[in-house]
Amino acid sequence: MFAEWFKLIITINAIVNFLLLLGMVFLERKKPENIIAWLTILTFLPIIGFFIYLMFGSGLSVRVRRMIRKKSISERDIMRNIDGIATLEEAKIDDTLKDNSELVSLCYSYGSYPLPGNGIKVFTDGNATLAALKKDLLAAEKTINIEYYIFADDKTGQEVLDILCRKAREGVDVKLIYDSVGSRKAPRKFFKKLEKAGGKIGEFFPPLLHLRLINLKVNYRNHRKIVAIDGKIGYTGGINIRDDHMGLDKKLKPWRDTHVRIEGSGVYGLQNIFLDDWRYCTNDTTPPRLYLENGYFPSPRICGDATIQVIDSGPDSEVPKIKETFIKMITNARSRVFIETPYFIPDETFMAALRIAAKSGVDIRIIVPATPDKHTVYLATLSYLKEMVELGVKVYLYQGFLHSKVILVDDNLLSIGTCNTDNRSFSLNFEDTVIMYSKELNNQHQKIIENDIKNSQYVDIEYFKKKRWITKMLQAIMRLLSALF
Q1: Phi, psi of 69 (to 5 degrees)
Q2: Pairing relation of β-strands 306-313 and 336-340?
Q3: Does residue 314 fall inside a structural domain?
Q4: CA 370 vs CA 230, 388, 451: distances in Å
Q5: What's this model's pTM, rounded to 2 decimal places?
Q6: Fewest beta carbons less than 10 Å away: which of 93, 127, 144, 379?
Q7: Contact between residue 402 and residue 369 where contact means Cβ atoms under 8 Å apart
Q8: Closest by CA position to 224, among listed 281, 168, 167, 186
Q9: What are the tens digits of pLDDT across the range 90-135?
């Protein structure tokens, strides 16, 4: 009797796996590496693998994708209605943009306008970022739009939320978006304080029936960190609103991160991304023209000499815009490519771009943390780094936890944002990054990275050869499954 039941279960499992395979190939159109990884799980974890796939593997439904796209606002349509914004051809007259004209055109094709005259301040730790952010929030006059993957109910989160509540009571239009998964430890009553003060909140991809353990979109996270204040000052980067990002976690000290403050027309790009997310997660139907009339996109001011483009990406799009932007940056490089990332799990196209650049004589340096926060992801990271070392790429392990998401190319190009160099950020998360065209910023940040390298361990091939066999085996397994991370 048991044997018959066992055969039945195995047969049903095989049929279900076959149907899932058809869905992955023809409906979701997953990449081959994703399909292989999921088939491995479904084969070696029968029944259990099916439920894991339902929770983490199934793609965004056509309905959700359509809703997100329907709610989105065209950045270029907004820019056309703002007096003082140069056309694409006028913007490309700038010498720095001339050197990167192909990249500028690529980003423009993704809907991102080149916005000049920005003042840029780069932060390399959480406390300095938080101090500047609180000062700017307190000075807000009309609007505060704030969106974080992690907004915690701890000392840091309470300080920021108290300021948001205060500004809402003063009559400032305050909107807050938090990600359901990233902010899962913060109770809803924590955010309700803002609503009671007159602000508005939105939860991105909330769970079924508001039960945290039942979220069929748990694999798709809004990883963005965006602040737009009065349409004039913006923030984005790696730092979340949580104590450990301020360096208060003893296991992950020192915490090294990178965040950027933008003053000028470049804030329009961040504002646009926020409003897209807000319109989707709150079902807001405000006509876009009202955003212009109500001061969300004020007249541009010259606040510095940096021209920037803000790029967003997410699983709602057929095109991995940030990944393709990074690949273009790498393939166009003539002298150097410096990458700082907490997780290095690229797909084959990204690896190919690095491989070609390395073999062309470009100085490529990759800096990752020596202290991991996610051990399974770190094992996969080491596997890919070994391949980079074999290609002649210089790899460094920062002595602490490096959470920066930075790519520096040649002497006039810099990207700072929320996007890691991994499959999750490229394909599964909603992300943003700021492409900055500026020799001065590039030079300043090159010095920051060189200082990070001084505080890092250089990794050669002997480092990997000395690893125990069990570690090497786990690296191989995690690499096989890395498309799912």
Answers
A1: -65, -35
A2: unpaired
A3: no
A4: 39, 17, 16
A5: 0.90
A6: 93
A7: yes
A8: 281
A9: 666 677 788 899 999 999 999 899 999 999 999 999 999 999 999 9
Structure token digits, residue 169: 């009571």
How many structural domains is the chain composed of? 3
Domain contains 16 = yes
Q: For 163-184, how does the pLDDT look when each residue is reduced to its tens digit (9 = 90+)?
A: 999 999 999 999 999 999 999 9
Who contacts 466 (Cβ-Cβ below 8 Å, separation ≥6)?
none
90 and 42, same domain (yes or no): no
Bridge-based pairing of strands 200-204 and 173-179 is parallel
CA distance 209 to 207: 6
Ramachandran assignment for 22, one of left (phi > 0), alpha (psi -120 to 50 degrees), beta (any other): alpha
Q: Are 203 and 180 in contact (CB under 8 A)?
A: yes
More confident residue, 320 or 52: 320
Q: Quick one: CA dihedral 35, 325, 321, 266, positive or negative?
A: positive
Active site residues: 223, 225, 230, 403, 405, 410
> What is the H or E stretch that residue 17 is in?
helix 2-22
Residue 213 pLDDT > 60, yes or no? no
Sole residue written with tokens 């394909």: 427
Pairing state between β 344-345 and 421-422: parallel
Say if residue 396 is in the same domain as residue 426.
Answer: yes
304 and 162, same domain (yes or no): yes
Helices 321-332 + 348-359 axis angle, to 10? 10
Answer yes or no: is pLDDT of 447 > 70: yes
Both tokens of 196, joined, read 């009671």
173: CB partners within 8 A, 6+ apart: 142, 143, 144
Output the six-digit token pair for 286.
């405000």
Looking at the structure, tell me whether residues 52 and 79 fall in a common domain: no
Q: Is the same domain home to 339 and 251?
A: no
Are residue 359 and residue 414 in the same domain, yes or no? yes
Output the six-digit token pair for 337: 């490519």
Domain that holds residue 296: 64-95+111-309
Q: Which of 322, 358, 318 is nearest to 341 (CA)?
A: 322
In the numeric block, the tokens 């930075």 are attached to 406
For residue 462 the two structure tokens come to: 């002997």
